[in-house]
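Recap quiz, item 2
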Amino acid sequence: MDGLVLNQNNVKLKVSASDWEEAIRIGGMMLVEQGFARTSYVDGIIRAIKELGPYIIIADGLAMPHTRPEEGALGIGCSLITLKEPVFFEGDSSPIKVMICFSAVDSESHMDILKMIVEFVERGLIDDIAEADTYDELLEVIKEDEKERRN
Amino acid sequence: MLQILTVCGAGLGSSFACQMSVDAVLKELGVKAKLDHTDISSVSGAKADIIISGKNFEKQFERYTIECPTVFLNRLVDKKEIKEKLTPVLKEIGAL
């Protein structure tokens, strides 16, 4: 189940990217480096966005770049990057500060990744995640909220 | 049972995330439904009572003949928006 959750290897914070495409390349190549996708998968994400519009923006400030498994996914995995300066997508006015790229092998089995993403949104964590400077700070943001939730 | 289909570009990410939020809203409303997600290219022959998708797909939907009510969202996992837009449709088709 490696790669399903966030760890030191699939998180990069305050990354510099000049536009959405570069940001997706950075996050997407982290999937490639972890062995979850071929480079073609990253190209496929970018092509799909150009064709279909920014369907990967699911909440203000948050994009989750992904595409169909047959574009070159090798396993279920994800990466999280936050951006030093937000990037914008054509057709959406929201400044994107957090990008969670993922790869999937079918239409269901990556549910844990999506649950995590939806939870981040529902708990209103996107801005706090974007502000974290270190991996430990990021964990603190996620954990702290879990603590509150349990109380 | 009421069938609701969420739709996005790849049919496995945004639509799946949306499905989770729709599920939560339906539970809140006390409406039972069978939920599924798919990609826009499969939407034409899909069987559903309500179709939910992103606003950015509204234009592309015009290419297909859809016989059920459609709901277009600005934000696919915004439960408030889902509730606001889905409730009148559920009432319209007699599910609420």
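Chain B has one domain: 3-92.
The mean pLDDT of chain B is 95.
End of item.
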